[in-house]
Write a structure and sequence with these properties.
Elements: H1 2-56, H2 60-108
Helix pairs in contact: 1-2
Length: 115
């Protein structure tokens, strides 16, 4: 019976390590997506400024081309933003799962959680 308890503890520890490593990877991905999102915002701003400049100078052909570029930039920004929000949601869900597992493990082992 003692062996079963030890094996269960080892499995729980291994699961915690794997979950923690996955969460760390998700945080790294979110940091990359955050930087990408910021850069995408800058690109949209730059495209908007170029379009305004072309319109101000009456360059209709260039303005038309830049309007298309602005719409493409906005579309890509929306894709990056969606990915960023999805990964943030996943991080939150996995963090909640890890916390729930720890609370349950503490409850089962007799710890009240009150220090």
């Amino acid at each position: 019976m003692g062996s079963d308890l030890h094996d269960g503890s080892a499995v729980q520890t291994a699961e915690f390590i794997v979950s923690s490593a996955r969460l760390a990877e998700l945080y790294e991905c979110s940091a990359l997506l955050r930087r990408t999102r910021v850069r995408a915002e800058e690109i949209v701003g730059e495209a908007r400024a170029l379009l305004a400049e072309a319109e101000q100078h009456g360059d209709a052909e260039r303005a038309h081309l830049l309007r298309d570029h602005l719409e493409q930039a906005r579309g890509k920004y929306c894709q990056v933003l969606s990915a960023y929000l999805m990964i943030c949601r996943t991080i939150n869900e996995e963090r909640q799962e890890i916390l729930g597992t720890q609370i349950e493990r503490d409850r089962v082992s007799g710890l009240s959680g009150v220090a």
